[in-house]
Amino acid sequence: MSNAIEIKNLVVSFPTPAGYSAVVRGINLTINPGDRVAIVGESGSGKTMMGLSMLGIQPTSAQVEGEILIGDVNMVTAPDAVARKLRGNYISMVFQEPLTSLNPVRTISSQLSESVRRHNSIGKKEAEKRVLEVLTAVGIPAPKERMKSYPHQLSGGLRQRVMIALALINKPQLVVADEPTTALDATIQAQILDLLRSGMGDAALMLITHDLAVAADVCNRIVVMYAGNIVEQGPVSEILSNPKHPYTRGLLSAIPKFDQARPALNPIPGSPPTISEVVPGCRFASRCSYADAQCTASEPEFINNIACFHPVTGAIK
Amino acid sequence: MKTKMTLPLTRRKISGKSKTSPLTLRIAATILGILFFIAIFQPYFYRADPALSDLMLRLQSPSLSGAWFGTDALGQDVYSRIIAGFRWSLGIGTVGTLLGCLIGITLGVSAAWNRKRLRIFLSRVIDIGISFPYLIIAVTIVTVVGRGFWPLALTLGLVCWPTIARVVYAETLTLREREYVTAARLFGIGSARSIFTHILPALRPTIQVVTAFTFAELLIAESGLSFLGLGAPLGTPTWGNMLNDSRGYMVDAPWMMLGPVTAIIVTIFAANLLGEGLNAREQSRSTRVSQ
Amino acid sequence: MSSDKKLIKAVDLSVTFKVPSGSLRAVDTVSFYVNAGETVAIVGESGSGKTTLALSLMRAYAPTSGNLFFEDEDITHLSEKALKDFRKKVQMVFQDPYSSLDPRMTVSQVIAEPLRAHFKLSGKERDEKAGESLRSVGLSADFLNRRASQFSGGQRQRIAIARALALDPKVLVADEPVSALDVSTQAQIVNLLQGIQEERNISYILVSHDLRLVYHLATRVVVMYLGKVVEEGACDDVVANPQHPYTAALLSAVPALDEASRRDRIVLNGAPPSPIARPTGCSFHPRCPIARPECSTNTPELQTLPNGRKVACFYPGELQPHISFTSSK
Q: Strand C6-19 vs strand C22-35: parallel, antiparallel, or unpaired?
């Protein structure tokens, strides 16, 4: 198997009073084994819905079209039983808020070992050995004692480590992490970012985040999404030092930096279109200072890692 | 809004049943509208004087040419007496509910808004109110002031307020912690104004739902009390009294019972439907807001 | 431009809450002041007491001990009625523009709410004032009759700022004013806040966990850990040369765009302990990379260093983070 996952022309849409509106609008993306890819976007960019669809756990009202290929299985059309088998075993997910994703009335160890035994025919003893192993790997101090704890007895940072352990326990090929550090404090976020960067074993990582700095911190490739489309992608250094899409450039110059001159920030004017809004042409055009008649007339295709008629070059001033 | 996807690893249903609510609401409102219309313009619906008894015509079975719903043991027209019962039942229900709302909302909001001893005291009062057996209230009032419309309305009001107070109390507790309420206080806005501008408008949907269900409950209670002889004065055409009268004739003249029972069921059904509809509308509104 | 006139001043302020397992000292003998026209940032993690401190400075809580002054008047024990003038001059912007605006109100009602608490206004006057305030935050007065719930996060935060400005306050307390917003709109609000300050010379008390934002906006920084101030000083100094190891770790934990700061990151162990079970000695010692045995027995006082910096540590300046400063020149 050459790719961890391959997404072809993925469309996710929701019913609205005016018919179906697409949140994800035809995305192509390949993640290779061992890759650490960040999906960066604002709320409404479709990044979370894409992540959920990859595991086949999108809300029932969502309509998914296109292909999500895991090996030769297409998650979009796969029967529930097949999808369930792949979830956890091949692809797993880490959510923003670990407390609501863990069962409050069961110990850490019972939840983890159940997950092991659901996918492998092994004994209880062996499963617990694996649990201990993975808890140690995600850096939980005194894992033997913590195994017997309930989720609410752990701090937010430890709970997120447990969530990551749960995601890793069946040695998946790909872990999708949706804003895994947003609910955490700064010093705890630093710990989890370290873990995501170097503690994921052989699993590829798809990190969904709104924060370019978090993306740069953890990943080696950045995919920028805007209003349901991928607008730019590339290696981290390339995206940070030489972003070509006006939106990526806008995001970068909107972040305050440790700069003694404290230059005024350059915000992107306006706000992103809502999902039901019909926008002719490029969806970013109305907020883009480079936009011209061509941009509002037709939508740019995603070619050579960018979807823009007027890619910009040079450093950001 | 920041995306907060906190799904467990299962499919979750997000789609609400927003489409069903307006229809339920419309049906309920239509039925209740008709019922209140009958209650207000009842003389126009009489077939005969509901108080007129003609012993020659007693216990007649329903017929299209004669008494539509039959006659009772005194030869009174069952149909006209049911119509007459509308005014009594709906009137009692309305007054009782309004009274209960007044007491319940006042106590519920004051209990939740205050932070110190007053809250503890008021919530105990509500607890006692909830556990107080309503028959004792009814018997006491009837003993002291006698039977009649107002004593019964008062009884029912005193019976239903604790439930309303409890719901309002719980809701106000969460509303009070809303940031815009804190903000109002920090702007220098007083308690009374905050309650009227922020708390009560936010409580409105909840109160509407509770009111509808309370109204249905009071209709049952009213019939029950009248049936037990604690409600309307003897001989007054009310559904409870009619049920009471029918006891001895259940085999010989079942229509005496079926008429008022149908009226009670239809009214209560409509009131409950209204509650459900309001509830569903509120639910679908709040999910739409959170998405 | 800031002068040395202290608008809000707290002296040894403590706020204690009753919790089932005892009492929680959320703010522990904190002294604080804000001068006219300056921006003071309160920095810390959840549980540090930063929001509680900000709210106590607004007299949202009655202090358990210590004193609070506004323009040299002791307001520690004033009744809500006597606080009216204070409430007029100190306003607040909350973190979440969704929960801080009543969804049932129109924009005009929202903005006019503080006005109506202090003045009698006709409907026309109200709309006029609200419209004026709305224009000052870059929104059109045409929005006055729409409901707040119809707006996006960024626009709502503008409305919240317009509401706070309606009374022309002297101090604005902003609790994480942009952290609930999308990245692309955050900068709009940051610039707006800066513009307002330049125009009106308002003092800001900024509560934030985002040190890049703090560096961008603040003149002075107060770092809190478990209810206590551990470091305080001019923003430039504190970031360039942190004295307390916790400040150093916080600065180092900022997600970085460059490789070097990532490589040399100071990663603290564990999580902040609960304020109910405070460690002995220095509260920070269980997580401190440079803690010595004495740190677990003796409590370091907040001392003033020769350069005016205040720090509560026995070994100030020992731990230094790697921060990549960028230069716009």
A: antiparallel
Exposure string (b/e) for A288-302, b if CB count within 10 Å is 16 or more?
beebeeebeeebbeb
Look at residue C4 in the predicted model and tell me its pLDDT: 63
pLDDT, tens digit, 9 for 90 and up, residues A280-312: 899 999 999 999 999 999 999 998 899 999 999
Instruction: With beta carbons under 8 A apart, name residues in chain B contacting A182.
Output: 2
Interface pTM (ipTM) of the complex?
0.84
Distance, in angstroms, between B187 CA and closest chain C CA?
Answer: 5
Q: Phi and psi (nearest 5°) for B274?
A: -60, -45
8 Å CB contact of C256 and A213: yes
User: Is the Cβ of B4 closer than 8 Å to some Cβ of chain A?
Assistant: yes
d(CA C281, CA A281): 63
DSSP letters for C88-107: HHEEEE-S-TTTSS-TTSBH
The dihedral built from the CA positions of residue A122, A126, A130 and A135, taken in this order, carries a sign that is positive
Tokens of A30: 């390949």
Least confident piece of the model among A26-35, A83-92, B69-78: B69-78
Q: Is C256 within 8 Å of chain A by CB?
A: yes
Q: Would an 8 Å CB–CB cutoff place B192 in contact with chain C?
A: no
B1 touches chain A (CB under 8 A): yes
Tokens representing B92?
Answer: 């009692």
CB contact under 8 A, B9 and A59: no
> Which helix H or strand E contains A47, and what residues bound it?
helix A47-54
Question: Residues A182-201: what's their mean pLDDT?
Answer: 88
* Residue B8 pLDDT greater than 80, yes or no: no
- Start-to-end CA distance of chain A, whole Å, equals 43
Decide if B187 and C114 are in contact by the 8 Å CB cutoff: yes
Q: Which of residues 157-186 of B touch C (CB under 8 A)?
A: 178-180, 182-186
- Chain C (80-139) residues lying within 8 Å, Cβ to Cβ, of chain A: none
Task: Please answer yes or no on whether B5 and A52 come within 8 Å at the CB atom.
Answer: yes
Check if C324 contacts A (Cβ < 8 Å): yes
Distance, in Å, from the CA atom of C285 to the CA atom of C271, rounded to the nearest integer, reads 12
Any idea what DSSP says for residue A68?
E
Residue in this structure with the two tokens 């003038």, named with its chain if needed? C85
